[in-house]
Amino acid sequence: MELGSTLIAAVLVAICVLPLWLISRNRKRAEKRILQSLADIASQHNNNKIVQQDLCGDLAIGLTENDQAVVFFKQGKEQVTTEYIPLAEVQSCKIIHVSRTTDNKSGNNKVTDKLDLVFSFIDAKKPEVVLPFYDTQEHLQLIGELQLIQQWAKMVNDRLRTVPTKVKVS
After folding, report:
1. Residue pLDDT, tens place only, 67-105
2. Domain that includes residue 151, residue range
3. I want to staple 117 with a disulfide (CB 3.0 to 4.6 A). Which of 12, 28, 124, 131 is the partner?
């Protein structure tokens, strides 16, 4: 009787724990794959290495050695976005926050529809680079993208004040 109860308890525990373990394992594998993709992008450009990085959901952003460049990777539902942005060529970095206000019983709510980090270059002929952090078309909820984009905009703008720039020769 006790052996049967013990077996049933062990099976029930396994049924409860196994899915959680599998979810955790798959998430860690996905994170590792995203961070490896970020490192691969950096290594394709003068064999740079990532010295600072952040991961949020399906995106990763990093800074290469000696503050040379920002590296970005995002695995979207339909496309993969990769960027390597040399900071010596960047004039400014800003956040584009698209939102709307909705009315409900408890009052007005501000809903974020899109978050982009936009890089403008010293060479005005070079188009701006837009790094998509969040879009309601891909995800229903923010999971830290707002804090991450604010952190990186501040960090990049602080670095732009200290990184020697490539002066455009006319």
Report:
1. 789 999 998 878 889 999 999 999 999 999 998 888 877
2. 2-160
3. 131
